[in-house]
Amino acid sequence: MTTSRTRAFFRAGSLALVLATAALGAQAQGHGPGPERMGGPMGGAMGGPGMGMGMMGHGFGEHMLDVVNATDAQRSQIDAIFKAARADLKAQHDANAALHTQMRDLFTATVVDAAAIEAVRAKLSLAHDAVSKRMTQAAVDAARVLTPEQRAKLADLAKKRAARMAKRTPG
Fold this sequence. Notes:
Blueprint: H1 3-28, H2 60-67, H3 72-107, H4 114-145, H5 148-168
Helix pairs in contact: 1-2, 1-3, 1-4, 1-5, 3-4
């Protein structure tokens, strides 16, 4: 991939992340962990699309929508989009919790069964992909609610945030 294509790819990814963050952050207010929060093999936070929006600060999504001067109608549409995504993923979230419990039990068993762990890991991988696809679709739908100018503001904000994060990253 050429340097310009790589940059374009990461810019598009950053924009999608910002859009998902903005919309999901608004949804995370007042809610416990949603279907996008997934634990790792030992029950820790492994991550997934939109994981931990509440950890980014209460009202973060509202702030993002404030930055782009989203209208009440846009906010309502974005709220409905992510509310539907959460509802769609509720059963998936419950199933994933059972898989994570199973994985933890396998790792803490007297005899560690690598084949059983791999089987559960494969199921979790498929589950994470399903969640990722659904949340990406929600982010796309939310992006379509915003104007090109609003999306450009979010992209600029993502670029500035990435620059701040790069300064903090050692190495």
